[in-house]
């Protein structure tokens, strides 16, 4: 691979959300602040949404790493679970023993006892859920019921939901109106702007051990931004492929042509500006046809 060629210890653009590579982008730092503040207030639900690849899982892991000692954490990375399964998963994350051969009522009692016990030890419980858009409708109710448990001053359980924009669509539905009202803090991750993207790419190179001058030329960086549309995961895929191509050519500098070739080889990337031009021509044509149709309508009616 290209590690030795560029003098790096690790792959700089691996897709694993590794918190060692965390770069304090404004949007991500703000999200962390919102999360920490929200946890301190002790309210029910907290929500972080963002498009695919914008860094939700990475933030989720960072939150788990940095969770203050006053909280006991339960983590559900794959919450596509029935209400019963959600209760079991939550109980097992809390370290509750004796979960076999008990019914749902006994399970709920065990959870409640554990929450009270933790509360007496001065600990709040945070249930952190990634991919929350995959939670089945009926399971949201199980989550809401957890947050019903409270002392006079605070909830015994707080739930942090990380999810794609579909989560917002689900929450807008009448079925989830009760839960929606419990969301006291929310944050929407945005994609990176061009300056942030440039800094992001450089940061990942440095974290991987690269020490030389800029590997990516200014035109290459512009192209990374354009093809990734500011989405970190797409940028990672493109940069990784571009580094491989550059290495394959025995070169030491990644140029625009490497990025374009990498982007053309990547799913989910708008391939070339020519496609955009055709889309524009097509939509202008459609608008013209619509305008002519509207303009002709009264004459046609008159003719009838
Ligand atoms: N602030 C950041 N610093 C470093 N890497 C990031 C950052 N945000 C996103 N990434 C990287 O982008 C990729 C996609 O992030 P991920 O958390 O998997 O996105 P999501 O869960 O929203 O689909 C991962 O490789 C992740 O490490
Ligand atoms: Mg994710």
Automatic annotation (TrEMBL):
Domain ORC1/DEAH AAA+ ATPase, residue spans: 42-171
Keyword Transmembrane helix belongs to the record: yes
Keywords per UniProt: Membrane, Transmembrane, Transmembrane helix
Transmembrane segments: 277-297
Designated name of the protein: AAA family ATPase
Species of provenance: Psychrosphaera algicola
């Amino acid at each position: 691979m290209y590690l030795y060629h560029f003098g790096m210890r690790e792959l700089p653009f691996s897709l694993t959300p590794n918190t060692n590579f965390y770069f304090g982008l404004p949007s991500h730092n703000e999200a962390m602040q919102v999360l920490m503040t929200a946890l301190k207030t002790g309210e029910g639900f907290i929500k972080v949404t963002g498009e695919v690849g914008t860094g939700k899982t990475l933030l989720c892991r960072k939150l788990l790493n940095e969770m203050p000692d006053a909280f006991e954490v339960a983590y559900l990375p794959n919450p596509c679970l029935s209400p019963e399964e959600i209760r079991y998963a939550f109980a097992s994350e809390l370290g509750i023993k004796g979960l076999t051969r008990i019914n749902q009522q006994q399970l709920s009692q065990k959870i409640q006892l554990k929450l009270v016990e933790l509360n007496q030890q001065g600990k709040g419980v945070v249930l952190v859920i990634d991919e929350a858009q995959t939670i089945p409708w009926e399971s949201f109710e199980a989550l809401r019921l957890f947050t019903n448990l409270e002392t006079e001053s605070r909830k015994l359980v707080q739930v942090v939901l990380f999810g794609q924009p579909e989560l917002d669509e689900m929450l807008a539905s009448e079925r989830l109106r009760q839960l929606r009202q419990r969301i006291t803090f929310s944050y929407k991750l945005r994609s990176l702007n061009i300056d942030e993207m440039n800094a992001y790419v450089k940061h990942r190179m440095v974290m991987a051990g690269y020490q030389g001058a800029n590997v990516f030329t200014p035109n290459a960086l512009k192209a990374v931004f354009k093809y990734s549309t500011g989405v970190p995961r797409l940028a990672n895929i493109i940069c990784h492929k571009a580094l491989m191509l550059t290495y394959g050519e025995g070169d030491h500098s990644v140029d625009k042509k490497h990025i374009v070739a990498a982007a053309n080889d990547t799913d989910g990337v708008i391939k070339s500006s020519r496609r955009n031009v055709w889309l524009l021509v097509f939509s202008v044509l459609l608008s013209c046809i619509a305008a002519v149709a509207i303009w002709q309508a009264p004459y046609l009616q008159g003719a009838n």
